[in-house]
């Protein structure tokens, strides 16, 4: 392990990481990315979500998130 690795700030997160941060499921976060409600990069099967996108989402998030994709 690189001794300097812990000194580097985390700039991006996986959907699993973001789900834990926001208290959502991985599927809900993937849906937010897929519908472009949460800014992300899609790299093959993975989404990479910048830290700034999480902050932007929280700053403008007024709508409840439904686990079934419809209106709450």
UniProtKB/TrEMBL annotation:
Residues spanning the signal sequence: none
InterPro entries: HTH_17, SinI_DNA-bd
Gene Ontology terms for molecular function: DNA binding
Domain Helix-turn-helix: 13-60
Pfam families, per the entry: HTH_17
Stated name of the protein: Helix-turn-helix domain-containing protein
Organism: Longimycelium tulufanense
């Amino acid at each position: 392990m690189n001794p300097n690795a812990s000194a580097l700030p985390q700039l991006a997160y996986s959907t699993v990481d973001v789900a834990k941060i926001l208290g959502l499921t991985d599927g809900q976060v993937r849906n937010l990315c897929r519908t472009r409600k949460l800014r992300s990069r899609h790299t093959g099967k993975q989404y990479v979500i910048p830290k700034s996108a999480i902050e932007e989402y929280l700053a403008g998030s007024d709508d409840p998130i439904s686990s079934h994709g419809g209106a709450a």
